[in-house]
Amino acid sequence: MAYEFKMTRCVEFPDTDMAGIMHFTNFFRFMEAAEHAFHRSLGFSVNWEKADKSLGVGWPRVKAECEYKRPLRFEDEVEIHLLVREVGAKTMTYLFIFRKHEDGKPVEVARGSLTVVCVTKDKAAGGMKAVVIPAAIRAKIQVAPAELLPKGN
Question: Across the 153 residues of the chain, what is the mean pLDDT of every consecutive 10-residue run?
């Protein structure tokens, strides 16, 4: 069972603002990319159209936040470390720790979280309906050990 995933991204020029710093909204894009890669690493997809793999569920956000500690700039390499903080019957919360290397040492530059809810399409109502996380997905995901989760998050 998995409780963490790491990926590295390079800050591209379009990710930056006029001050040359990564725009705050792109941290959320990077979190989403890490979440999608985490699901793919487990053999699932967050894409509705791949129902054979994703079991026909989606994961809309019900809460998203990010705390910024240091700037990221064009061409910085950043590691996004996803940790599963909570798993409920219908929801999951991920913690994301962003780190870049300075003088050969990893330095935390931001910390964020996403809470997502498992839904299916409700064709009758024309929307979505919260459902219990499918057993096939739940069987592959667990909460990260307490010693890996920063205190206060």
Answer: 96 95 97 96 78 72 97 96 97 98 94 96 82 93 94 64
| DSSP characters over 60-104 | -EEEEEEEE-S--BTT-EEEEEEEEEEE-SSEEEEEEEEEEEETT
- Secondary structure letter of residue 134 according to DSSP: P
Distances (CA, A) of 16 to 9, 97, 117, 123, 129: 14, 19, 30, 40, 37
Containing 29, the helix (H) or strand (E) segment is helix 25-41
Q: Residue 87 has what pLDDT? A: 97
Domain assignment of residue 123, yes or no: yes
Q: How many domains does the chain divide into?
A: 1
The domain containing residue 73 runs over which residues? Answer: 4-147
Largest CA-CA distance found in the chain, in angstroms, rounded = 57
Q: Would residue 152 count as lying in a domain? A: no
CATH of the domain at 114: 3.10.129.10
Please check whether residue 153 lies inside any domain of the structure. no
How does DSSP classify residue 141? Answer: B
Q: pTM for the whole thing?
A: 0.92
